[in-house]
Specification:
Elements: E1 14-17, E2 23-24, E3 29-30, E4 33-36, E5 45-48, E6 52-60, H1 61-66, E7 69-74, E8 77-82, E9 92-95, E10 112-119, H2 126-138
Parallel strand pairs: 6-10
Antiparallel strand pairs: 1-4, 2-3, 5-6, 7-8, 9-10
Length: 149
């Protein structure tokens, strides 16, 4: 049996399918089916503040530096997200109104909170290494590691 799950249901709520249960020969009517809503724990998403969804996204270090647009799968399908300037590992990008619905009859939604995980390749080929060395020599960006008291 397939149950239609309306948007905006929360854990602990019930779905009622009227006249879909067993036939009662005495009353000549069908009973109702009640389904309790429970959520399966996900390793990829967390629900925060009841309606916001928090998940981690992997972002190429090159996409982050170049402030590229990346494509993400969301509850509503694919969405293009422009990476903000100076995005860092652990930063949170908020997609407003891409979270859970705030009720069965509500059009208001929570947000989708994207925690950035910058990904650096384990291996690069010689051509990539040469190109990156060239960028390193030409950049004004320098990192210092000073321990200050």
């Amino acid at each position: 049996m397939t149950l239609p799950i309306p948007k905006g249901l929360s854990p602990g709520q019930q779905i009622v399918l009227r006249n879909s249960g067993h036939f009662n020969s005495e009353t000549k009517t069908k009973g109702n089916i009640y389904g309790n809503i429970n959520l399966k724990v996900s390793k990829k998403i967390n629900i925060v503040n009841s309606y916001d969804i928090r998940t981690t996204i992997n972002v190429s270090y090159l996409d982050a530096i170049l402030e590229n647009e990346i494509i993400l799968d969301t509850l509503d399908g694919q969405v293009a997200v422009k990476l903000p300037k100076k995005v860092k590992n652990g930063d949170v990008i908020t997609l407003h109104n891409h979270g859970l619905y705030q009720g069965v009859k509500s059009h208001k939604r929570g947000n989708l909170l994207l925690v950035v995980n910058l990904v650096i390749p384990d291996k690069i080929n010689d051509k990539e290494k040469t190109a990156l060395k060239d960028v390193l020599e030409k950049t004004d960006f320098k990192v210092t590691n000073e321990i200050k008291e």
